[in-house]
Amino acid sequence: MTEYHYLEVEGINVFYREAGDPSKPVILLLHGFPTSSHMFRDLIPVLAKGYHVIAPDYPGFGQTTSPRRSSFSYTFDHLTEIIAAFIEHLGLTKYALYVFDYGAPIGFRLAMNHPDCVTAIISQNGNIYEEGLGKKWAARAEYWRNPTLEKRESYRSAFEADTIKSQYLDGTQANRVSPDGYTLDIAYMSRSENAEKQLDLIFDYQNNVKMYPLFQQYLREYQPPVLAAWGKNDVSFIPEGANAFKKDVPNAEIHLLDTGHFALETHANEIGELMWAFLKKNGIL
Prior knowledge:
By secondary structure, the protein is an alpha/beta fold. Helix content is 42%, strand content 16%. The chain is built from eleven helices and eight strands. The chain has helices at 43-47, 76-90, 103-113, 136-145, 149-154, 161-169, 180-189, 194-222, 240-243, 245-248, 264-281, and strands at residues 3-9, 12-19, 26-30, 52-56, 95-99, 118-123, 226-231, 253-257. Strands 1-2-4-3-5-6-7-8 form an eight-stranded mixed sheet, sandwiched between helices. Helix 6 (161-169) runs antiparallel to helix 7 (180-189). The protein is globular and about 50 Å long. The two termini are 20 Å apart.
């Protein structure tokens, strides 16, 4: 059964979901935008039969403390610091990383800083390649080059209900996606001051793109087992981002699924089965 916990880390109450036998290998699930560990609600029971599964919410997301901007810097470096401290507090020394969306730059920072801890990487629409960036990223690159207040304000549309809903539905078959996930995310994104925090992260995302070569260098040097289970109809992180893993890890396993950005909403069982086979093949039992 899944348990729900809080752990105080540097003055922040980090919420996390936990399931499975603590003596089993650990899988750390890292969520994306605009969601939380709730996105793993269907995957966790599939994995927990043989693994110790842990899924935290980042500061400003889900049920974790959402500090005010005056006391907390909303950058990917800082989110990674909190998750790294969370991992240390739990005493985790070996873990496979499941990275999705924002979880990719956080997870690859963790892997780069602690390569001996990482047993495998599962990327589900978790991009670290320029070729994986969809068309919308050209406009964001222009914003980063010329960060006017007007352009910053224009990204408030990313938190509008229709935008969040479309992130879930685009590229999926009709009537396959439950409204629960996007309804919860819409509620989280409407909390006080949250838009400004998320706008800070959108602006800081440029530093993730700048770090892509470092993430790729980590892969080339350490050759961790890599599984890319990717919603091929995602318009944000396109399938070329999945295929690109083979440039740096030739044995990377690539699966393109007929779904969108939030692939777990429609393919949780399929992704879970792919993970089981992949982890078993790589001796992570």
